[in-house]
Write a structure and sequence with these properties.
By secondary structure, this protein is an alpha+beta fold. 25% of the residues lie in helices and 26% in strands. It is built from nine helices and 14 strands. The chain has a ten-stranded antiparallel beta sheet. The two termini are 30 Å apart.
C-alpha cells in the first residue's frame, strides 16, 4: 500500500520501539483524493452541482437555511471492499457555511449532512437554492494510501494500554510526540482530502471532538467516558481547505465526518457526525 513504508520509518525514528511497533500495526487504508488531470478517471468532485434523489429536498438547517454542497464521491469508482464503503452509489457531503461552533467544539448535527444515493434510485443534478454559497468544480481522482492514528487517537490509546510507565510518560508529554506529528503532516501534502483510514487532525484527535459532542459537551477530556465514546467512531471522510475550489474553513481548516461502524455497515450515513478544526 502506498505510503506504508514511509510511515513505518517515521514511527521507528520518532517513537520508542514498543510504541512504534504497535502504532504501525494500526495502519489503515484510505483513498486520497486530488484534482484529476488530463485523461485521469474522476471518482468524484469538489463543489459544482450535486446529485440528489428525485423528490428529496435540498439539505437544510432549520432556522439557518440551506447547507452548502462540499463534495461528492462515486463509491463505484473506489476500492470499496478495502475501505468498507458501499460498492456502488454516491456519497455527498454538505455543511452550513456559518459553521455552528468554534473549531473542535460540539457541532450542531443539523449543520452538516451526508447523503447516500443507492444504485437504482432516480437522481438528478440539482442547483443550490437561491442565495446559497457554492464552490468551484474540481474533478477528483486518487489512489489508496496508508494512514496511521494521531498520538491522541483512542485507537492508539487502547492499543498501548498495557505498556509500561516509561512509554506512557513519553506519550503524555506532547513535546515528545511533536516531531512525529509534524512528520505525519509532511507525509501528507495538501490539500488533504480523503475517505476512510485515519483522520489527520489539526488539533486533538477528531474522535474526541465527536465524543465530546455526543456526550453533551460537558465531559472533561480526561473522563474515561469520553475515551469509550470516542472509540465507537471511525473517520468517514475529511475535506481540507482548497484554493482551487474556493474553499476556506476558518484559518486553513479541515472538515471531518465520522461514523459508527454499525451505521457504516448498515449504510445509515444520515447518522454520521461532523466536526472541524483549524490552526
Amino acid at each position: 500500500m502506498r505510503g506504508e513504508a514511509s510511515l513505518v520509518r517515521l514511527a521507528r525514528r520518532e517513537l520508542p520501539p514498543a510504541i512504534a511497533g504497535r502504532w504501525a500495526g494500526l495502519l489503515r487504508p484510505s483513498f486520497w483524493l486530488r484534482a484529476a488531470g488530463g485523461d485521469e478517471p474522476a471518482v468524484g468532485q469538489l463543489g459544482g452541482v450535486p446529485l440528489l434523489p428525485d423528490g428529496t429536498a435540498w439539505p437544510h438547517w432549520d432556522g439557518y437555511g440551506p447547507l452548502t454542497f462540499v463534495a461528492e464521491i462515486d463509491c463505484g469508482e473506489l476500492p470499496s471492499d478495502t475501505l468498507s464503503l458501499p460498492r456502488t452509489g454516491t456519497l455527498s457531503f454538505f455543511v452550513h457555511n456559518d459553521l455552528p461552533v468554534g473549531p473542535g467544539g460540539p457541532a450542531e448535527p443539523a449543520a452538516a449532512r451526508v447523503v447516500y444515493i443507492p444504485p437504482g434510485v432516480p437522481a438528478t443534478e440539482r442547483d443550490a437554492p437561491a442565495g446559497t454559497d457554492s464552490y468551484d468544480l474540481v474533478e477528483l481522482t486518487g489512489e489508496l494510501h496508508a494512514t496511521g492514528p494521531d498520538p491522541d487517537s483512542p485507537v492508539l490509546t487502547e492499543a498501548l494500554a498495557d505498556l509500561g510507565g516509561e512509554d506512557r510518560a513519553f506519550l503524555a508529554d506532547r513535546r515528545n510526540t511533536d516531531p512525529f506529528t509534524q512528520g505525519l503532516w509532511e507525509l501528507a501534502p495538501p490539500p488533504r482530502h480523503w475517505v476512510g483510514g485515519h483522520a489527520l487532525p489539526i488539533q486533538t484527535a477528531v474522535e474526541l471532538d465527536i465524543a465530546h459532542a455526543q456526550l453533551g459537551g460537558a465531559v472533561p477530556y480526561d473522563d474515561p467516558a469520553l475515551a469509550r465514546e470516542a472509540g465507537r467512531w471511525v473517520p468517514l471522510a475529511q475535506f481540507d481547505s482548497d484554493g482551487a475550489a474556493g474553499m476556506m474553513w476558518g484559518d486553513c481548516g479541515t472538515l471531518y465526518w465520522l461514523i459508527r461502524p454499525a451505521d457504516l455497515a448498515a449504510r445509515r450515513f444520515e447518522a454520521a457526525a461532523f466536526t472541524w478544526q483549524c490552526t
